[in-house]
Specification:
Largest sheet: 9 strands, mixed
GO biological process, one term: L-histidine biosynthetic process
Distance between the termini: 33 Å
Oligomer: single chain
Structural class: alpha/beta
Helix content: 10-25%
Protein name: Imidazole glycerol phosphate synthase hisHF
Number of strands: 32
Enzyme class: hydrolase
Pathway: Amino-acid biosynthesis; L-histidine biosynthesis; L-histidine from 5-phospho-alpha-D-ribose 1-diphosphate: step 5/9
Main location: plastid
């Protein structure tokens, strides 16, 4: 998660809403819902530099967290608390040396992180802590900073504890960057915290990686293959660091954190999974369209070509369940991600949508896979005349537990302006959010509808021949983008929009199809193939799934990285596990959700 331009904590937008502060010591007993389960090249201490741990000893139930203020680390906090530990935040360099166990969940840009560590006097102390073989776990950027330098906006010097340079993935070989999704590990040596993990997938999201070499091979505990073998984890003594996100890797990730925190916990082995993890898995995503019904209750609904009301005399909003409970169910069923689409979006002011923010907070306390939220992410002026930027709106979603935000209409307007001027102003919501939080944190949701053509030359936008002719026998179609929930067509095609938003900083594209929505006849393969072939970032297929075969079809016939569905999961017509079992039988790599049991020494 390091492809961002860092904004210090004091500059990240905050707004006047009440939410739990994570400074100082946070109690693990505050979980609200228990519906699931109970700057030198090589920084060394200078001459005369002495660091000693204070005589005050932390409680065994306390984890020290080095959160330097960039991005969202709420998921790490929730995972630590879920495992029964309290959190003490690092406020001073002395807090590092007084830690009994230290977790560094790095988020943001390499250079900015090093700048903060140096300015706060923490870089040298952190090196001393690690060199003393004290219990340490670095996550994502927390691993990369241990190396000598990074090419990200650089070269930029790192902590210099591990030989090697952090470089960007090469997208020219056909692999999509960022590397997003569930991939397999190849264990190289006794890693302690990775015991029994090799058969399972873990969740990665990054654009930069460190490479194995003879100079750093003694550190490497596992590698991962994504076009090339890169370092997935390191270990030396009590010092651990991982490139993936254990806090977003489900039960497998929790087991990794549990082993680090307890250190002596033993595994009760479950039967091995039927299919051993070997490469990047195709993702199955559960989507929840959330809005208020006519009684003011927040419910999950589902549209039929974007119409969410029942065709009855009452014409009520279709109610398919409560969002927090459904998200929890999908997590247990094996969903690789959960996506919330706030289709009410509090059109006048989305930050007034306190119930939706609460949904995110409660869900993130018990759901340990990536959470995406969309709806209403744009600039606003409230009733008092106060202006809120889209970055402020997104920041509140991130602080409430979202890992990614999905931008719709606002991205269309930004792309239209960019295609006119070819100038990146940096002012659009897409550019602002990706600059601060990284492009992997921004999904652009495209809502096109088919416009049939007799002659592809009759339109200035990309037109393709489709497998199913139009109502009058038309063989060609262009996909017109829409805004405002599909109610307004825009003079831009889905192909042109996808290319533009990739250049503006999108990390993923969610491609919907209004014509297929709620029909249950399968994804629009022509559209998904068009978009997934046009860009080098991951593409999520959406709209139209009605059977397990539709998922294998979209994965076998297009370059989609993930497939999303809603209604068939809500109505229990097609369980998530049935989808994955079918995909596995078709030879398509998927993550198999497996529970692991542990015996704690405490």
């Amino acid at each position: 998660m390091e492809a961002a331009t860092f904004t210090p904590a004091t500059q990240i937008p905050t707004i006047g809403l009440s939410y739990s502060s994570s400074s100082s010591l946070c109690s693990s007993g505050s979980r609200s819902l228990q519906f699931l389960r109970r700057s030198s090249h090589n920084l060394k201490p200078s001459k005369g530099f002495s660091i000693r741990a204070s005589s005050s000893v932390e409680d065994d139930s306390v984890v020290t967290l080095l959160d330097y203020g960039a991005g969202n680390v709420r998921s790490v906090r929730n995972a630590i608390r879920f495992l029964g530990f309290d959190i003490k935040d690092v406020q001073t360099p002395e807090d590092i040396m007084n830690a009994k166990r230290l977790i560094f969940p790095g988020v943001g840009a390499f250079a900015a992180a090093m700048d903060v560590l140096n300015k706060k006097g923490m870089a040298e102390v952190l090196c001393a802590y690690i060199e003393q073989d004290r219990p340490f776990l670095g996550i994502c950027l927390g691993l990369q900073l241990l190396f000598e330098s990074s090419e990200e906006n650089g070269p930029v010097k790192g902590l210099g504890l591990i030989p090697g340079v952090v470089g960007r993935f090469d997208s020219s070989n056909g692999f999509r960057v960022p590397h997003i999704g569930w991939n397999a590990l190849q264990i190289r040596k006794d890693s302690q915290i990775l015991d029994d993990i090799e058969s399972h997938h873990v969740y990665f999201v990054h654009s930069y990686r460190a490479m194995p070499s003879d100079d750093n091979k003694e550190w490497i505990s596992s590698t991962c293959n994504y076009g090339e073998n890169f370092i997935a984890s390191v270990r030396r003594g009590n010092v651990h660091a991982v490139q993936f996100h254990p806090e977003k890797s489900g039960d497998v990730g929790l087991s990794i954190l549990r082993r680090f925190l307890y250190r002596k916990c033993e595994t009760t082995k479950k039967p091995s999974v039927q299919r051993k993890a070997s490469k990047l898995a195709k993702r199955v995503i559960a989507c929840l369209d959330v809005r208020t019904n006519d009684n003011g209750d927040l419910v999950v609904t589902k549209g039929d070509q974007y119409d969410v009301r029942e065709h009855t005399k009452e014409n009520e909003v279709r109610n398919l369940g409560k969002p927090v409970e459904l998200a929890g169910r999908y997590y247990l069923d094996g969903a690789d991600e959960v996506s919330f689409l706030n289709i009410t979006g509090f059109r006048d002011f989305p930050l007034g949508d306190l119930p939706m923010l609460q949904v995110l907070r409660y869900t993130s306390e018990n759901v340990f896979v990536p959470l995406t939220v969309g709806g209403g992410i744009r600039d606003f002026t409230d009733g008092t005349g106060r202006y809120y930027s889209s970055l402020e709106v997104a920041s509140e979603y991130f602080r409430s537990g979202a890992d990614k935000v999905s931008i719709g209409s606002d991205a269309v307007y930004a792309a239209e302006e960019y295609l006119k001027t070819r100038v990146k102003t940096g002012k659009s919501s897409l550019e602002q959010i990706s600059r601060v939080y990284g492009n992997q944190a921004v999904v652009v949701s495209i809502d096109p509808r088919r416009v049939y053509l007799k002659d592809p030359n009759n339109v200035e936008f990309k037109a393709i021949r489709v497998r199913n002719p139009g109502p009058n026998g038309e063989e060609y179609v262009w996909y017109q983008c829409t805004v405002n929930g599909g109610r307004e067509g825009r003079p831009i095609g889905a192909y042109e929009l996808a290319k533009a938003v990739e250049e503006l900083g999108a990390g993923e594209i969610l491609i919907n199809c209004i014509d297929c929505d709620g029909q249950g006849k399968g994804f629009d393969i022509d559209l998904v193939k068009l978009i997934s072939d046009a860009v080098s970032i991951p593409v999520i297929a959406s709209s139209g799934a009605g059977a397990v075969e539709h998922f294998s079809e979209v994965f076998l016939e297009t370059n989609a990285s993930a497939a999303l569905a809603a209604g068939i999961f809500h109505r229990k017509e097609v369980p998530i596990q049935s989808v994955k079992e079918h995909l596995s039988k078709e030879g398509i790599e998927v993550r198999i959700s497996t529970s692991l049991n542990y015996t704690s020494p405490l």
